[in-house]
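Full entry
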Amino acid sequence: MSISAWERVDAALIIGSDLRREIPLLHLRLRKAGLRGARLSVINPLDGDFRFPVQVGQLAKDLAEELAAVALAVSELSGNAIPAALGAAVQGVEPQQAHVQIAEDLMRGAQTGLLVGQLALDQAGAGTLLALAAFVAEATGSALGTLPVGGNTAGAWLCGIVPHRGMGGTPLMAPGRSASEMLSGKLQGFLLLGAEPEREAANPAAAVAALSGAAFGVALTPYLTETLKATAHVLLPIGTFSETAGSLISRDGQWLSFAGCAEPIGEARPGWKVLRVLGNSLGVAGFDYADCSEVTEAARLAIGPVQATPGQWHRQGSWERPMLPALQRLGPLALYGTDALVRRAPSLQDSPEGSRARQLRIHPTDAARAGLKAGEPVQVNQAGARVVASWTADATLAPGCVWFPAGLLDLPVGGARFGALEIMPAAAN
């Protein structure tokens, strides 16, 4: 379903999303639907500051358990049996009236949909959430959409920048290693393209440790950071995304081409040109492009028409609900921490939204249990990483969750962005 079509839904369920900050335009479309009378429901680990009427709002840390309850309610109302692959995921779950209400809204509407956001897709058990959502969508006749993280996630997938897919999303017979697998083991070598792993990786501490142990590393980067100087053996300057031409593929499958708005500084070159020279030097085929538009056209021909197909995760494998820690970090990339350029823009970092992202937010119950005092810093321990930061109490979080965003330059680096952590008064160390 296109973004514009969401304003015409009769009912929708949003799962794990800070939608106003992930895709503001989609939030606006749903606001228009809600003001028209659409039944909009949310399952979230935080109050997402939504600007539309929420009919059913489930504030919970365990998103999989909540969605499993909705799936059971849908199964009961629709007569569609829970697939065998989801048997373990729904085991021991009892739907409540709120879950039944969500199921009824999705089944009654003529045009309905489910949206799975970053707070769901980035955490452990994301596959289970997608499988449950796919069953609910199929059984209720709803559209299922996932909210991409970053500006060109769809383009990266369609160009094969994932270990198990080739151009156009075709399955690979011999999949490669995922980023998690590469950064959790021993690396012989690495090549980074415009990446700042200490700010962007799913587990920054583990990523830096893996890169530090590599025998040889190359980083193509517009900015020189202490981490890159310590881990890479060769640094090649490239321009930022605004200093090169290129193309994006939107969430709706539309190609959006653009030109660079400035020339790269000094000896920096657009990233694609540096890769072309490296490919030519190594004698690799397919690196003979003279202009960025040729790269775009080659990709367009290889990908072909972009068509969305319903996910069938609920028909394959065996899905289980994840075991969640007593205290879980919610660590999405901050709104102004998504890339190297915006995280260095003082005007954005000094804005109310930029300032908001710099404070850890902790549910009052969890803060009291840890002995934290207002105005005093908190120490966060996470998989060997120790961080001291300011914090504020926030009752709009689900108990057991700590809002600790990532991607900002002056925010301490921690461990897994959606992993377990411990909190204590900073003086207690």
